[in-house]
Design brief:
Blueprint (H helix, E strand, L loop, with lengths): L1 H9 L7 E6 L7 H6 L1 H4 L4 E9 L39 H13 L3 E6 L2 H18 L7 E4 L10 H4 L3 E4 L8 H16 L5 H6 L3 E4 L11 H10 L18 H8 L1 H6 L17 E4 L16 E6 L2 E5 L3
Parallel strand pairs: 1-2, 2-3, 3-4, 4-5, 5-6
Antiparallel strand pairs: 7-8, 8-9
Helix pairs in contact: 4-5, 9-10
The structure holds zinc ion.
């Protein structure tokens, strides 16, 4: 897999700026070698400078995301609140997690955490805090990913510990996954904190969004853009989900452009269109900043340029 991707990047076939994260865990024995060799595989527009750690699962029927408070009770099931103590399944014990994050931080390797529940997010925050305490504040900007739920007390930590919030996947509108599966597992009160975009942005940290492709049905960022603004089903109809976390179009645009470039350490060259930066741009069939909000999700890309090179044309 990495041979193929790295070769493709070396030959110039890979046009996108891509970053790979090497999965690491207490039982993933052979990832250490790959981490040591990461620079040899980083070539062209491919950069391998990141390690991914899974701290929990997902807050669905299986109730494997780690939550600070127990899941809702359900009748008829032998494990009423799900596995373990009813608060999900922790995947890496803290006595392994904290020293591992501190060691990667010291080597300048970014750590990306899979953390869906607010309990897993808390663990990631504490692991980054331990690394900063041991190594000082100059280490890489780590990234906590998914963040289906973030406890209010942890929101300001993104800025204080200079890490990035990555919220994903693109399903912050009423769907069977959000309005039924997650809502049944965590209950109505906690649903008010489902993907807290507005709070994460107002907390002052860098915030990005991700598709979590190929786990979810669509990778289309215009669905994500519209529903960040509406929290309604695409087309802006029906009741919103967690309307208190709606954000503006300008904020949504920043998540998809400038903030992503900042996260990849290339804001000096990309992320915005200004003199002196590379011509990374798309041409659209409508202006998502001014069309009726319920039409944003239908936006189509007509052409894509990366560093001034036309790499996609809808017409051709
Ligand atoms: Zn993940």
């Amino acid at each position: 897999m990495i041979e193929g991707l790295s070769g493709y990047a070396r030959s110039g076939g890979l046009k996108q700026y891509a970053r790979g994260c090497i999965v690491w865990g207490p039982n993933s024995g052979n990832s250490e070698g790959l981490i040591a060799e990461r620079q040899a595989w980083s070539t062209g527009r491919l950069k391998l400078d990141c390690v991914k750690m899974f701290l929990d699962g997902v807050p669905l029927e299986g109730r494997t995301a780690v939550m600070l408070a127990p899941y809702e009770r359900r009748s008829g099931a032998h494990d009423e609140q799900g596995p373990g103590d009813g608060r999900g399944l922790k995947l890496i014990p803290e006595d392994i997690l904290f020293p591992a994050v501190t060691a990667f931080d010291r080597q300048g390797i970014q750590v990306k955490f899979h953390a869906a529940g607010d309990g897993a997010v808390r663990e990631a925050v504490e692991a980054i805090a331990a690394a900063r305490k041991a190594n000082g504040d100059t280490g890489p900007h780590h990234e906590i990913g998914h963040n289906t739920f973030i406890d209010a007390a942890d929101v300001p930590m993104g800025r204080a510990l200079h890490f990035t919030w990555e919220l994903s996947p693109y399903i912050w509108w009423p769907t069977p996954i959000t309005s039924v599966d997650i809502a049944e597992a965590v209950g109505a009160e906690r649903m008010k904190r489902l993907w807290p975009m507005r709070e994460a942005i107002e907390g002052g940290a860098n915030v990005v969004i991700g598709s979590d492709w190929p786990v979810v049905p669509s990778v289309n960022p215009w669905l994500a853009f519209e529903t960040l603004v509406t929290r309604q089903v695409p087309g802006a109809t029906g009741d919103p989900i967690n309307a208190g976390q709606r954000i503006s179009r300008e904020q949504a645009m920043a998540l998809l452009t400038r903030n992503g470039a900042a996260e990849m350490g290339r804001l000096d060259r990309g992320g915005t269109l200004e003199p002196g930066k590379l011509a990374d741009l798309i041409i659209l069939d409508r202006n998502p900043m001014t069309v009726r909000v319920g039409e944003i999700y239908q936006t189509k890309v007509l052409a894509t340029y990366i560093a001034g090179e036309k790499v996609f044309s809808a017409a051709e």
